[in-house]
Amino acid sequence: MRRLCPKCGRPVPVGQPCPRCSKAPQGKRPSHGSRTREQEASRKTANPWRSQYATSAYQRARQAALASTGGRCALCGRQIAQTRDGRWVMGRGAGGVHHVRALSQGGGNGPNNLVPLCSACHNRVDAERRRFG
User: Fold this and answer.
1) Residue 36, helix vs strand vs coil
2) Helices (H), 11-133
3) Distance from the Cα of residue 35 to its chain's centroid
4) Structure pTM?
5) CA distance 71 to 130
6) Using one digit for the tens of pLDDT, what is the confidence trace for 21-72?
């Protein structure tokens, strides 16, 4: 039987630590987002829709999605964002805004396609999407 690692979302045998997360030295856990410049450049080439994340329209839609749940995960209700100076700010590693229909599958960046999820729920939903398409 397997479970999802709460840190990285990868399947791990029940009762065993995640081999990826547990091998990092104390205080130096992998961010799973650390990429070289070359890796990031190839990622942008392979996924051109990522450039939309910097637009003001996307940022407004993201703020609207966070406001709609009061900064809480839409699945488990965990608080993942707070307001600062009138804007919703995500806690580091707390989660992200998930696209209900993936951009790669024709989904958009509108507030009706965005839903805030904590990192554990986001990893689980993304893993299910990869598994079942």
Assistant:
1) coil
2) 19-22, 37-46, 56-68, 119-132
3) 16
4) 0.65
5) 26
6) 765 444 444 454 567 888 878 877 887 777 788 889 999 999 999 999 999 9
